[in-house]
UniProtKB/TrEMBL annotation:
Keywords annotated in UniProt: ATP-binding, Nucleotide-binding, Transport
Ranges annotated as spanning the membrane: none
Domain ABC transporter stretches: 4-228
Keyword Nucleotide-binding attached: yes
First and last residues shown, out of full length: 3 to 230 of 312
Name of the molecule in the record: ATP-binding cassette domain-containing protein
GO MF annotation: an example: ATP hydrolysis activity
Keyword Calcium assigned: no
Organism listed in the record: Paracoccus limosus
Length: 228
């Protein structure tokens, strides 16, 4: 069965904005799905609902079979989220940041997974550094480590390369591919076609709250008349 099932999702904010309009989508375990669309399309709203941060106006979402409204804790445990804004305490160390995130899920501060996680993100040698000493790329990898601290099966990345330079963007692409190779299902949002094309197995195009199409990237590129 799909790891995430989204059925007829609707979101209307109190302001009256219709942010999502009847979105249905199934996400398979182990894939990288890019949600591609311009600013205001509804991408962050969709991710926020799946992660249980925003209440839907209608429809249903199940994560690993758990309904996000009725069984929020079990659903949320399966998910890690890297939000758009970077928010790290500059005086905290890499280890303390990640241990804090583990504590939120009742995980012990240390175990073999923690070391493996930090090594896979090339952060192990920096584990005692304060985050203010880190490069922009390392800070982003710390945010990913925090999101993966409780060993979720699905990772959400909201605009992972917004406002970063080309070198860092490429670094993020490699990190995402590496995580997928470790079996993590990844959903990311972007407004760059190139980024969706580089990173994803499937691309969902979203605009004005509607999921216009979802296709393997090879087919989508065909429709845009591009080779890759
Ligand atoms: P919900 O119905 O999900 O609780 P609300 O409509 O109450 O959402 O809005 C949540 C918060 O986001 C409010 O404080 C609101 O002022 C703020 N907000 C309103 N418009 C926007 C916007 N366009 N983008 C981001 N936040 C907004
Ligand atoms: P995207 O992530 O694709 O840029 P969003 O999901 O942030 O799109 O926004 C979708 C629409 O919902 C936009 O019109 C936005 O202004 C509106 N919106 C987003 N968050 C809120 C909020 N909390 N309250 C009211 N309106 C919001």
């Amino acid at each position: 069965p799909p790891i995430i099932q989204i059925e007829h999702l609707v979101k209307r904010y109190d302001s009256g904005t219709a942010a999502l309009d009847d979105v249905s989508l199934e996400i398979r375990e182990g894939e990288i799905l890019a949600l591609l669309g311009p600013n205001g399309a509804g991408k962050t709203t969709l991710i926020s609902i799946i992660c249980g941060l925003v209440r839907p106006s209608g429809g249903a979402v199940r994560v690993g079979g758990h309904d996000i409204q009725r069984d929020w804790r079990a659903a949320r445990r399966m998910i890690g989220l890297v939000p758009q804004e970077i928010a790290l305490d500059p005086f905290e160390t890499v280890l303390s940041c990640v241990r804090f995130s583990r504590g939120l899920y009742g995980e012990p501060p240390d175990d073999p997974y923690l070391e493996q996680l930090l090594r896979s993100l090339a952060l192990w040698d920096k584990r005692d550094a304060r985050t203010r000493e880190l490069s922009g790329g390392m800070k982003r990898r710390v945010l990913i480590a925090k999101a993966l601290a409780h060993r979720p099966r699905v990772l959400f990345l909201d605009e992972p390369t917004a406002g970063v330079d080309v070198a860092l963007r490429r670094e993020m692409w490699l990190v995402v591919r590496d995580l997928r190779a470790q079996g993590v299902t990844i959903i990311l949002t972007t407004h760059y076609l190139e980024e969706a094309e580089e990173m994803a197995d499937r691309i969902g195009v979203i605009n004005h709250g509607r999921l216009l199409l979802v296709q393997p990237k090879s087919e989508l590129m065909g429709e845009f008349g591009k080779k890759h």
